[in-house]
Amino acid sequence: MAPGLVGMHAHIILAGINEQTALYGEATFVHLVASRTASTMLNQGFTTIRDVGGPAFALKLAIDRGIMPGPRSFASVAALSQTSGQGDFRLLDELPRMPTTPAHRVEREVINILADSVPEVLRRTREQLMKWASKINVMAGGGVSSLYDPLETAQYLEDDLRAAVQAAADWGTYVCTLVYTPAGIQRCVKAGEKCIEHGQLADAAAVKAMADAGVWCGIQPFLADEDANPKSDPRQRAKQVEVGERTVRSFDLVRRHSPRLAFGTDYSSTRVAWHEWAASSTSSPVSCRHWKPCVWPPVRPANCWRYWGRAHPTTTRWARCVRAPWPTCCLWMAARRRVWTG
Ligand SMILES: [Zn+2]
How far apart are CA 56 and CA 107, in angstroms? Predict the structure, then answer.
């Protein structure tokens, strides 16, 4: 029996490779690198990951069938983004998009998919579910790696978000959202989303809203330091620095208001090893004081897994198609004991 870490925010396809290659490089090469990343993650102690965006399903199948070494993956497919949003990586000379315009490369490679209205959100959500997404990822505010959207922008109307939540719920699963800002977080909570990913710009009211609604907070220690994902564009770097400056404050708000805290590294576009990150964390502004590593529990999947309901990927059609081994035990790091009972 070997203990392992559960990584609640990972992109196995985008980790271990730079952003440009992941988005625009030869797809076969990107997937080969990802298979090595999976092995590295396992050797670093991750026995389970929740993948929150990218074409991770083929690799998941190979891992589940014992063809490749790697962590058990609760895989996603493409993340939904509005036009101009966090997942829109088109060049400006590719605009405007007409009804006959073919899907962009980033959409064809199943990294992100554009949807701009309730009908489009419903269609794209259902397409991801048809491709066996274990949950739906929606980008609901300005991103760091994206070029056109300032961090403070709100993305998707509440009705759009509700549409994704309803379509996912009808399939027995849920929506998690990538968003940094207080207004975006509040809108997502109102729309019924279950997990907020990032949230470094959150204010006290937004963190309290997450706690009151029982929404999980998947915040990562982004510090814009030497371990941060390299950014070549000054617009990206400026946003990265802004998020980094707010990270410690957001962790303090989380400690104060106690939403359910999920541990994830967003380990992407970098080769920084988990153990190096962990070692630097002990002396960095976001330290073990913030994570407060808990105990080594007996077999107990994270309570966030409950959101899958009857569509839990290890108990339904996903599991019947693969021989998915359960990890024998997991190390769950959390800020509060509440995470065990939530
Ligand atoms: Zn991420």
Answer: 14
Compute, in angstroms, the gap from residue 175 CA to the centroid of ligand 1. 14
**CA 267 / ligand 1 centre spacing (Å):** 8
Tokens 């907070």 belong to 217
CA distance 333 to 2: 16
Q: Compute the distance from residue 197 Cα to the ligand 1 centre, in Å.
A: 8
Whether 331 has a pLDDT exceeding 50, the answer reads no
Would you say residue 306 has pLDDT above 80? no
Give the model's confidence band at 322: pLDDT under 50 very low, under 70 low, under 90 confident, else very high.
very low
Weakest-pLDDT range from 191-200, 208-217, 257-266: 257-266
54 CA distance to ligand 1 centroid (A)?
10
Q: What is the pLDDT of residue 310?
A: 63
Closest alpha carbon to 4 in 59, 48, 35: 48
CA of 103 to the centre of ligand 1 (A): 22
Residue 330: pLDDT over 50:
no
CA separation for the pair 220, 203 (Å, rounded)? 16
Distance 142 CA to ligand 1 centre (A): 13
Looking up tokens 């400006």 gives: 92
Domain ranges of the chain: 5-341
State how beta strands 46-51 and 195-198 pair: unpaired
CA 213 to chain centre: 20
Q: Which residues of 219-248 are buried (b: 16+ CB within 10 A; e: fewer)?
A: bbbbbbeeebbebeeeebeebbbbbbebbb
Please give the CATH topology (third level) of the domain spanning 5-341: TIM Barrel (3.20.20)
**Letter string b/e over residues 90-129, b meaning 16 or more CB atoms within 10 A of that residue's CB:** beeeeeeeeeeeeebebbebbbbbbbbebebbbebbbbbb
Distance between Cα 266 and ligand 1 center (Å): 5
CA of 163 to the centre of ligand 1 (A): 22
Query: Rounded CA gap, 17 and 331, in Å?
Result: 27
